[in-house]
Hints:
This protein is mainly α. It is built from 23 helices and no strands.
Amino acid sequence: MGTTLSAADVQRLMTDPSAETRTETAAKVASSFQDGSLGEVEQKLASEIFRVLAKDAEERVRQALSQNLKNAAGVPADVAVTLAKDISDKVALPIIQFSEALSEDDLIDIVRTQAPQRQVAVASREDVTDGVAHVLVDEADKTAVVALVSNERVNLSEGVLDKVVETYGEDEDVQRPLVHRPTLPITITEKLVSKLTDELKDYLVQHHELSEETATDLVLQARERATIGLAATYNDETDVEALVRQLHNNGRLTPSIVFRSLCVGDLVFFENALAIMADVPLQNARILIHDEGDLGFKSLYAKGGLPSSLLPAFRTGVSLARDNEKERTDADLEQQTRSMLEHILTAHEDVIGRYGEENVDYLLNKFNQVA
Length: 371
């Protein structure tokens, strides 16, 4: 077989069929197959040799074959599957992690039937398909899921990431590599923030003798600050709309977070929020919000179900956010929120006071971290 498997090698195989000889032969034939130096007839002969060596009783023979074929193109599928299902991890893992000869169905079968270490090898491949990724999250050991979200060479779909957050969002081993992925859809990031803060609430209740109600309120504020900060990092309005819609669908588009968006001057978030809450097209909502008359914004606000007692404060917030939009800088969001709240609360102290202590608490307790 060319210059790699010489006549002397053939003669040696015939006279000395030891494990050492077979190991060397496996390495030579596989090496020639990988570098493309074999002709068509020689490739067919090599494939037959692989089929024999893949079932060799000696582990080191099969291991030599696996190591030399893991990156080779054109490896017969049956040979790859035989090696991938070998009893020895030393034989199976290189093929599972690197061989292109394994199909999506082969990899799914490995995930469903093989040990965690082999599931990890599947999750570490460069070409993890969406179908394989879903099966890994649904059926594999957690170590394989950690390997999957740590694999930055694979572009995981939003569906896969959503499933990871729903299943493992509170697991620190999965959280760590997940939050360090190069990019995450804004909807996934918001859900992850939600999971993290739920864990924080449990910690507060268990370790700091807080009531469930107080802890929930503190966590809500932390979550809302993080979410508004997150929205400010996205320039694409489509992403912001997706975030706001997700918040609404999950009952997290609260009056306080809508109000907070005004306090940081995020009119895009605010406009999307009112459009979704009132179930009107965004362009229509923008016209109503910025109508110089009193009726447009009032009607949209009421249809959105926001507290009527706070309409004056929201109206002032819109006016201030619009006036400050051109002068908006990257100033600290908490400082900007505090400044806006001071203006709004000062302007409407008498109005808010008429609606009783409950409404003062509504504003101040929701924002006591920044106000």
